[in-house]
Amino acid sequence: MGAAAAAALSFANQQAYAQTSDAGTNAEVVDGAGGQEIADANRTLDTIVITGIRGSLKDAMDIKRSAQGVVDAISAEDIGKFPDTNLAESLQRITGVSIDRSNNEGNQVTVRGFGPSFNMVTLNGRQMPRSSSIESEGITRSFNFREISSELVSGVEVYKTGRADVDSGGIGSTINVKTARPFDYQGFTAFGSVKGVIDRSVETGDDITPEISGLVSHKFLDDKVGILLALSQSERHSHTDRVGTEGWVRNRGQNIDTSNIDNGTGSWWAPWTVDLDLLDTQRKRQNGQLVLQFAPTDRLTATIDYTAQRFEQTSNMNRQGLWFDEPTGVPDVNGTLVNPIEVTDELNFWAWQFYEKTEGDSVGLNLDWQATDTLSFTFDFHDSTSKSNPNGTNSEHRTNLANGIYELNEEGVLEGVANKLVNFSADFSGDIPTVTVDDSALPGNGAYDKANIIPDLFHTYGYQIDNQIQQARFAGKWENAGEGALTAVNFGLQKTSYKVDTRQFGTFAFITTLALDDLSLDFEPVGDALSEFGDATTIYPFVPRYSASEYISLADEQGLFFQAPPSSDGVEEETLAAFVSAEFETEFNGMPVYANAGVRFEDTNVSAYSVLETIQNLQYNHLEGISVIYDGVPVAQTLYGGYKKILPNFDVKVDITDQLVGRFSYGRTMTRSELDKMFPSTRITQVRPGDPALARQGNPNLLPFESDNFDFSVEYYYNEASYVSVGYFQKYVNNFIGETTVLSVIEDANGNPLTDPSVDADPALCPDATIPTAACFNRADQPVLNFEFTTPENLDSAEVDGWEFNVQHIFGDSGFGAIANYTLVDSDAKYDIRQINGNRALSGLSDSANLVAFYDKNGIQARIAYNWRDEFLLKGGNEPTFTEAYGQFDANASYEINDHFTVFIEGLNLTNETTRRHGRYREQLLSAEQYGARYNVGLRAKF
């Protein structure tokens, strides 16, 4: 609980105690968790504590009311009892906060339209490192809330306006996650929770998995020493059904009739694929914290803490799909090839294995010294690390089988080429595509006959990341004991070292000579498994079931597997910050006025490096593949950058009446670039026969996003834990980071521009080559490849504004209450789907709303919540990804058996909603996913 909240709650408790003292020896305890009245003539109370849902809401309201600037908060209802099973799921209940979901679980947050990378997340005021081994997640600073147990969290504060004494980095917000300390409790305190996680989606694994957490805290030696230990372990098995594509490509296909197109550019888009995925996931999460506090005097407190996080997740996925290599058809008016047709091709039978492992450790020291009655100092230091894939193995494996008929001679050498005899088409006009396959030209039982299936390729990739933050902060506060408007001055210095080292793995190879005799391959009927999507058999009748790791093991046994050397990249940021702020109290026309004015100065130096081999050749494999061949000599490249920033802030709060509060805030905030945008290396991202060649390079000289922010709000606190608020905000963002694309050549190790090896290639010499073959390399007499070269740059500015509406109401002593909020966000940086290049757009920009109803009385708590988020841009670039509007119902209920034990049940995604994403237009489906409902049933104990 924050100091402001503690003071407010202490005042309320004192008032309640005075009332009970006047009543005589009988005492009334108001307990929001049970709401019961207890009369006891044999004991004296010194406080009355409101707990449960009502107590949590009151704590959060008190923090909001007394804060400088715009602050929202969530407080734990009791020890080990955060409102939701996931921190992100709780944060989405706050006005202006939305979440992104992964595997039916909140993982990252968007605040006021600014996505995860624009929000700084701290743990007890400290910046925490982040790492991930999954290539699609990139190298990001964004905190993932799935990796921390909510049971070990005592509260979360969301600072929507900037403050000089709060870490920079969040244009959207700074979110501080607070954990318990032994001096927070009186004497011995303990809680434990045991629950069974029931996931209705599970197909492979356990339907019920355990989640256990507990905390023990004790003070001794006349309350001068305290120790706290908190532990949590969670296991979860789940399943995801997905229908989608690998993306949409502009101006791809042959014999395209463009007569219908009316989109201003004449461009059209064709899908890469149509896919049906079945994904099974098993996850284990462990969290722990050990805290030691020592107060040798009333004026000095020392805290030493160690926090550990372990996260391990394995996912296996099978996909039935097809590739539109040379699609034909007639695009609609927007240019979408809604009914693509492919002649003489093949079905693809994919398998994936994802392995994620992260380890986080943090050691910290905090000293709090009240030097005099008016002067206090704090010193805080922590050394925190996050490591993903710490063993340095491939974290992602992808393999493919395909229709084809090959013959091997007596020496086992491939003779002939594949006979692609399957015709197919798709229809993207509905919510999910329908597929028509004609495999009548294949012998036997057609496309799903194992005799007509051959090996195709393997692909391994992923990251190994070592991220470390060392941070030292010295701060002081002088409080004015005399008269005058100036009440306090805050000041401090902070040094932050942020260092990330990465190794990126990536091996791609066609291995059509792999013997598949020992591969376990089956075909699972789709049947009613995807009935929520409609008639699933109109997509595919079967899904292949086999293991990607087994496929690669066979390749290794047969001498066909190889591992390309990884590349290395890294960034180191050294930031020195100084801040000062002053607090004022005065009156205007009899109204109390509270003001805070401050400034923060930051000096940041950046160095970025890359180590990778130089491209020696491009190798033609076949009609669909070109490989990059490196020279085997790693070369290091280092570039430097830096910047200085001044970040002022000014906040005014006016108590217009005892119940009505008005606010104005101005602050300048900034957000640093994503880490992988600063790597100096040049990488080829796509090169295929007949398709545009793509490449990208980072930019260590990127300046941070910088925003001037204005907030106006009015809040009416009309009853205990009941209030209404309306707020308006504006943000003016400069140094907007976008991507520029130019046509450029890439030179090989000898300084010659790369050419196109697919031109005049001899298929007889390059039959799906799996090893470098000189006859298949690019030659000087072939056309030079012009790559579409993408580089991040600081481009234009952007404006964002919006409204926040919130009402929280307790219906007297009935036990019932409700919360409703709505956020409107608008910006001039919206993605223009009719513009082909140069879009500057904010990801995550969307309206959102919440509706919560609850009951809290007589030992019974119940709550049902609906969260809605409008469509938003998930990812920009030349081809965008939009997440469509989504709403979800969650509910929970509990019953207090006695003062020590409570039983509870929780349900998430009760109506099994579908998450759907598309490209420029709704018909350009990218993904439709369903996860099923999830329930938790358990027992909580408190002593």
Features:
single chain; 943 residues; mainly beta; Maltoporin, Chain A; 27-stranded antiparallel beta sheet; 5-stranded mixed beta sheet; 4 helices; 53% strand; globular; disordered N terminus; TonB_rcpt_bac; cell outer membrane
Mind sketching the topology for me?
Layout: H1 3-22, H2 52-66, E1 71-75, H3 87-91, E2 97-101, E3 106-111, E4 119-123, E5 126-127, E6 153-159, E7 173-179, E8 189-199, E9 208-220, E10 225-244, E11 248-250, E12 269-271, E13 273-297, E14 300-323, E15 341-345, E16 347-370, E17 375-388, E18 396-403, E19 407-408, E20 414-415, E21 422-427, E22 434-438, E23 453-479, E24 486-510, E25 522-525, E26 542-545, H4 548-557, E27 567-588, E28 591-622, E29 625-655, E30 660-671, E31 682-686, E32 694-697, E33 705-719, E34 722-734, E35 737-744, E36 787-794, E37 798-810, E38 816-827, E39 848-857, E40 860-869, E41 872-875, E42 881-883, E43 886-896, E44 901-908, E45 914-918, E46 925-930, E47 934-942
Parallel strand pairs: 4-7, 32-36
Antiparallel strand pairs: 1-6, 2-3, 4-5, 6-7, 8-9, 8-47, 9-10, 10-13, 10-46, 11-12, 13-14, 14-16, 15-21, 16-17, 16-18, 17-23, 18-23, 19-20, 21-22, 23-24, 24-27, 25-26, 27-28, 28-29, 29-30, 30-33, 31-32, 33-34, 34-37, 35-36, 37-38, 38-39, 39-40, 40-43, 41-42, 42-45, 43-44, 44-47, 45-46
Helix pairs in contact: 1-2
Domain TonB-dependent receptor plug: 64-172
Subcellular location: Cell outer membrane
Main location: membrane
